[in-house]
Amino acid sequence: MDIGSKWRTPAPTGRKAPQLDVPTTIEGKLARIICDIEGFDEGLMVNDTNLRAEVGMDSLDFVELSLCISEEFALVVPDDYDFERLVTFGDVVRLVFSLQSAPGATAMGGVGADDAPAGL
Fold this sequence. Notes:
By secondary structure, the protein is mostly helical. The chain is built from 3 helices and no strands. It has helices spanning 26-38, 59-73, 89-101. α1 (26-38) packs antiparallel against α2. It is globular. The chain starts with 25 loop residues before the first helix and ends in a 19-residue tail after the last helix. Residues 106-120 have low confidence and may be disordered.
């Protein structure tokens, strides 16, 4: 028995590898993050989903969300950000868009949600 043979890559079988369900949009990534934090059904997450009343998020969940946003999007939610301003899922989406598009913002820099682009 050739010991190196067990480490060789098997010959292709013609089957495709399964596709992983990985969200690629900001909305999809945020929905996944929030649902992972709170155990909420991702399929029910829409822009007007109330994070406290429907999802059950509390102040510690919002701190965790802030850390996850920093990690996932390489952005920083300011330490003094008022999480009470985040009522719906759409509010979180607007926050991330504003952090990404703020004038002069760079990776690991941030601004508040009041600076979100118009229409979001």
